[in-house]
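Posting this for the archive.
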Amino acid sequence: KRRMAVPYNEELKMLSSEQRYIWASYFLFVALSSLIGDTVILLASRNRDNFRLNKFLVTIMQHIAVCDIAVSITTILPSAASLIADAWILGDVLCFVAIYLNY
């Protein structure tokens, strides 16, 4: 089987197990706080009375929250999984998709 170029950072392979788990924990914390915070923003902004802002500003906030959720799902969570496993474990298709989503 041929070796593929993976989005997993090869420099992270030089880290010890403890360092990888610390980084993975940090990534998981960032992803979880992002998902929770952005979901709260999206739910709260559905009702226009919750935010006494211009409709345009609320729409911008919603777009930023959606983009942040997308980055958390497509970048941070796969990075955490790769750090925990110390290899890219999400398959060949997601390998190519992750490369294009990250750049």
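The two ends are 26 Å apart (CA to CA). Confidence is low (pLDDT under 50) at residues 1-7.
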